[in-house]
Structure formats: C-alpha cells, structure tokens
Fold this protein.
Amino acid sequence: MVDVSFFLRRDTVLFLHVIMGLLVAVLAVWVLLELNKKSSLIKPLSAGAAIVSWVSVLPAARLYLLFYPPTKTLIKAGPAPWAHSIIMETKEHWALLVPLIVTVAAWLVISGKEKESKKWWILAIVMIALIAVLGRVVKMGAVA
Amino acid sequence: MSKAKTKPAKKQAAAKTPAKSEVKEQAKGQKTMFNFHLGIAASSLLLAILVIGGELFAPLKDLLKNVFTHHWIGKAVIISLVFFIAGYLARNREAGKIPDEELAWKSTLASIAAIFAFYIIHYFLV
C-alpha cells in the first residue's frame, strides 16, 4: 500500500518541485539537440516536456501555499525583506508562464514548425534557470 | 530532339515543385486545433494586468482570494483557461497586421519584464 502522506510532506514536495523543474529544462535541452538531427524523438520529448511542466505546478503550489508562509514571515521580519517582496513575488508569477511557454514550444514542434520552436525552448530553459536562481536568493534571504 | 525532350521534363518538374508563394499560401492554410500563439499572448498580458492590478487595487486581489482561496491560484486558473480558450477560439483566425508569432513573443517578454520591473518599483516607491 502506497503511503499518500509521503507525497504531501514538505521535503518530498520540495524534492519533486526541483526535480520536475530540472526535468523540463533537461527535456527542453534534449529537444533542441534533437532538432538539429531531425530525430523521431522530438515529438514525444516535446509532449513529455509540456506534460511535466503542467504537472510540476502541483508540488510548486503545495510548497508555496502551505509551506512557504512561515518562511515569508521570517524573510519580511529579517534584514532582507526584498527577498520576498521582489524576488519571491517575481518568481511565483514567472513560474506560471513556464507551462504556457513549454506548451507553445511543444505545439510548434508537433505542428511541424520545429525551427520556430527553438526560441521558445530557449526561453523556457532561461526562465527555469532564472527561477532556480531566484529560489536560491529567497532561501538566502530566509537565513540572512 | 533533345530540346523537345527536356522542355516537357522541365514542365513536369515545375509542376511537382510548388513555387515559394504557393508554399506560403499552403502554410497559411494549415489549421491546427489551437493557435497557442494568441493563447500565450492573451494569457501573458492578462497575467501582468492581474499582478499589477492586484497589487495596486486591493479589491481585485481580494476577489481572486475569495473566489479561488488564494490570489496565486486565481491567477493560475484564469491564465490557463484563457490560454486554452483563446488558443481554441483563434484557431482559424487569419494573421493580422502583426504576425501571431511576433505578437506572442513580444507579449510574453513584455509580461516577464513588466512583472519584475513592477515589483522593484513597488518595493522602493510604494
């Protein structure tokens, strides 16, 4: 019997959040590499990236809505309130655009516009990297 | 004799290979179930409006909270619905003055920049 509560714990959710974000970035890089080879893997990889990007919102939502508020209080009362007011606020809203960007990229690939999809994959990778950096800054703000 | 043979051959080849203008027309005519370019253009602009509007006009943020239990969930649900609904409704739309792809790209980048710039300005000025 699978213990569902395991998947709801803070550490598990944080792990899933990071792994899924990383997975979308890896899949996007993989698609970009396969685009040059005209590989048959491009379409399933693109669809996979889009699906993972949407599913990744679930652990992100649980982490942000349930486990972040105490950290937010700590940051706002500390010496670096901007870590929440600028960085976290930006991060939480930029993250909402990632599934949309990845879906546009995947849709372009699936509808045969591989060349046009390139800049959307690159944007997705850049956004995920920036979101990861912002996440790190928020954490530094919490322990400052 | 040889000229007579090559002319029809050239004609056949020309008939098989469509002209560039024809290819463009065919591409224009290709319809998909969604036009996600317009979907993301609408969603990204709406997200920027909800973010900035929600911070500057408290009743908007409260409305999102009251309807969706949290403003972030409200924004996520609304922009996702708009992405798919606008994408579906615009599936047969002919391109306007600004190509859909350009509109999508510029709207997305503008939204990303506007959100970040707004929170910096909001932190230091408000």
In short: Chain A is about 85% helix and 0% strand. The helical segments of chain A are 10-37, 42-55, 57-77, 82-110, 114-143.
